[in-house]
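From the pipeline queue, job 12 of 40. The input is one protein chain; the requested action is below.

Action: predict structure.
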Amino acid sequence: MNHWTQNAIFYHIYPLGFFGCEKLQTNQTVHRINELEQWIGHLRSLHVNALYIGPLFASSSHGYDTIDYYEIDPRLGTNEDFKKLCQKLHENQIKVILDGVFNHVGREFWAFKDVCEKKWDSPYKEWFSNLHFEGTTPYHDPFYYDSWEGHYELVKLNLYNQNVCDHLLQAVNMWIDEFDIDGLRLDAANCIPPHFFKQLKNFTQSKKKDFWLMGEVIHGDYNQWANQEMLDSVTNYECYKGIYSSHNTKNYFEIAYAFNRQHGDHGIYKNLYLYNFVDNHDVDRIASALHDPRDLKNVMTLLYTMCGIPSLYYGSEWGITGKRSKHSDEVLRPEVHLNDIKQNDVVSHIQKLGEIKIKEESFHDLHYQQIYLTNEQFVFQRNNCLIALNCADHPSEVKIPEGTYQNLLNDDTLHVQSTLTIQAHDSLILKT
């Protein structure tokens, strides 16, 4: 594989929260998306070169209940606003990735509204999964349909109907032609039949050879979705959990096991550049997930130096907190402003990690080797770089090969005999 994502650093925003939009669609156009231009300087300071913008198209409420695949949500602005933003991002060498919510739509989606109005006379009644007139729903419809995980405000599309597939592919065609987008994150990818992803892959490759497709997958064998015929990558939830959990339990064996399982000598994903993250719009903020805030810098070191593609969720670089509740994810998706950014040692650390990730070819492929491991210390190798971490509350020694190293995090030169001391809750990136 020789693809731009090998050297990519993503920044992920959830736009309806990011801009503090109204919770429900008002159909009033507010040109909020234009404000993202002001953030480009911050993105460049983090060495970000790919922006993943969460659900962007017209929806009823939270963005995943789509009304229209061809229009930007008016709470964010207009298609023309977004076109100008994409041009500006591309001028600054930042790729644009959008959410492809193709498993389901909202009840206000035009074709579903037609079914509600015309019932069995609607030409779109076969656009929705398992829609039949021998049952009802919690909305007291005179018909039944499949939903996403029992949420009947999210109506599952029938992706075995070619007219539905064509409608979605035509929308992707527009996004590429008009906005020159560079990829899609496919929502609920595990719910979508493989034949649709094969169509999507063939179509996008014919439009743009380096177009990137990434699927949201929580469990299972990632090779089912990420392969030559379907998607390029999936969300790496296995390592997401392992990264924060191994710090909370002071047990680096957990994340080391995941790294070996994925990209070690007998790794099952040795050819996959997985999409790595430590938080997102669906899970607790990393600053809240960690028991000890001193571990945050080590967490970021792992994110940027592990095999695959690092992605930073907006605001987590300056320590935004938030824990989801049984009833709402809103706290995970707050409104932010440029003047909220707090330049601290974590932001500085992430900026340095971004510089290293971009400049050092050691981190552009999938070579991985474990060097040293205890509960609280972990050393692994990426080509000619060693990454050494200590999550203990005290300085600790690790064993690494003898030699002279440059610590890329501070440019110090270290002469190592057989052991190296790492400070408490600290990490080193050593280049031979």
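Job complete. The longest helix spans residues 162-179.
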